[in-house]
Amino acid sequence: MLVGYMRVSSDSDRQTTDLQRDALMAAGVDSRHLFEDHASGAQDDRPGLSKALAFVHPGDVLVVWKLDRLGRSLSHLLSIVNELKENQVAFRSLTEGMDTTTPSGELLFHVFGALAQYERALTKERVVAGLAAAKRRGRIGGRPPVIVGEKLEAITLALKGGMSKAAVCRNFGVKRTTLIETLARIGWPTSQQK
């Protein structure tokens, strides 16, 4: 059975699913098996998509007019299509000609998967490079320190004076993890961090 999914970004009068509906019905989707959303693709809560995914059964084909109607990003799209595959449901996008019931459509899907993996690797590489560049300039990433100024001086004096970390946390009203992170940030000797 062919099951159709349509989405437009908003409920405004200018955006309707008419074009998508016509294309899906022309492709053989029964009007009783159409699901739609009027929501941004970036939104997690899309009831029409949830209903469509719950409706499909093994052997069915989920059909969309265009890939961007289904997923909010390449990785999200791949996640949905992989979920469909696990449930033995095929996927077809009319505009891009992707059809996982055919060998060429399956190949195209795997190419998309490789591209998504490549995109994730590039993003990770850029983040690591950016953090290294910031570190070379003396900037440390992460949240701003919680313990600073006079409070930090008082804490370090207390620790040097032999006060335990538990006592410091109680007396100065700081969490142990915050204290440990702050000491590591200022280069407190690890032998004194226990």
TrEMBL record:
Annotated InterPro entries: Homeodomain-like_sf, Recombinase_CS, Resolv_N, Resolvase-like_N_sf, SSR_resolvase
Residue positions of the active site: 9
Coiled-coil region list: none
CDD domains attached to this UniProt entry: SR_ResInv
GO molecular function, one term: DNA strand exchange activity
Domain Resolvase/invertase-type recombinase catalytic: start-end pairs: 1-138
The entry's keywords: DNA integration, DNA invertase, DNA recombination, DNA-binding
PROSITE patterns named in the record: RECOMBINASES_2, RECOMBINASES_3
Gene3D superfamilies assigned: Resolvase, N-terminal catalytic domain (3.40.50.1390)
GO terms of biological process kind: DNA integration
Pfam families: Resolvase (PF00239)
Name of the protein described by the UniProt record: Resolvase
Organism of derivation: Methylocucumis oryzae
